[in-house]
């Protein structure tokens, strides 16, 4: 871990974080943020401020499995040393998974080709105490097939005005969703419970044999760009469809008429994960 | 939800809890406990103290997927109403999964036939922020086959003095482990990542493709009775074996010589779950 001033290098890091305790990714005055934590550690290491650039923001309470950031440094640490040095100083709810030296031209936000978000819904009469910070508890019956139909309506290139927060100042609301999938994992339906890997995971724990059956519903959304609150409004809308309060046709109409009021409510933040960021 | 004084019924409840915030299951003065939380809610409902009897204690920080308790009540609620009434008043980290009326002779502790504990080890260079409260992070290489061999040594009926806390006052330390299994789930080795259910779960999140490979190791221990700290000392010992610091033969010797010093350290509480309690 030699620290020599041998020129400036650009570093790309892949980061996982539990967003529960944070006011979101982006640095803000008087609030604890992911970017703020990273920059505090980097400033301590460099004895001067170091700017961290993320692939994009995540909201308060939203998590990341694979957020990507870049920063510049004159410290000559190798990849393993960066991972170790940062993880030692960061709180346990933010972990550096990977670090690599990248060309000076790399930009964590500008160079994004697409992103994947995943939203987890815990669909059982009683919530699991173990995934309460990582999923949305929906205890009422849901028609998954209708949710999948509505999901298909949203795939492709559309004006997503109806599925974005009114707070957005961006004018162009045309975005492309490459893939929108609604998956259901039912632990109880496993061929052999001792063979089902799910049964061994803490997240499965409330699907106890004596409990009424629980399911984990995952909404996987991959796209080239996302508007403010877009994934959470999509999920809130899909749940309305699943409950029978909206039809896939009405989702199509919301999209066509660009009417936020025709879409569903914004799903809560704790079920959302920035899952992966893809570059060229 | 009629509340009539039509005699006293005995109720059996299956409970899941996240033990992170608690000083253990058993009621203690000046400490927040699972039993204390349950009794507080029941006293509020009954306007008189109601004793909760659990299948056994769990230590501070230890979780339960399927703890079982019983209590007596003169309220005439049905099963669904009990689940709803208790969950509404309990904190989100304690959930009633199931309630059923049982014969007056049922006893949650005396009638236990066997119990299953599961201990989760997160085996990867970097810990997952999402399972940090539900697993033990072991970042060093482990020989799983040797751990499995050592596990076999412990199966059967033995004097487990070497694997119990010196604090125990119980004289008879002979117990029977019906099953001791060391399982490994490697998400990266799944046949098809999009088919692997594991890949969709929050607990999987640090096994990001750019991260060095991570594994979840589960120690499943089923037995008719357990001594204080027994599972955690067994897991601590198995990890010593996995690291190469002890051999399966030395585990056999610890057992035979009933010497606590020959066994390994006590594994931390957060990886341990009381998974299931079995009755006749």
TrEMBL record, chains A, B:
It catalyses: uridine(38/39/40) in tRNA = pseudouridine(38/39/40) in tRNA. Transmembrane segments: none annotated. It holds the Pfam family PseudoU_synth_1. Keywords: Isomerase, tRNA processing. InterPro entries: PsdUridine_synth_cat_dom_sf, PsdUridine_synth_TruA, PsdUridine_synth_TruA_a/b_dom, PsdUridine_synth_TruA_C, TruA/RsuA/RluB/E/F_N. The active site is at residue 59. Coiled coil: none annotated. Homodimer. HAMAP family: TruA. Formation of pseudouridine at positions 38, 39 and 40 in the anticodon stem and loop of transfer RNAs. This is tRNA pseudouridine synthase A.
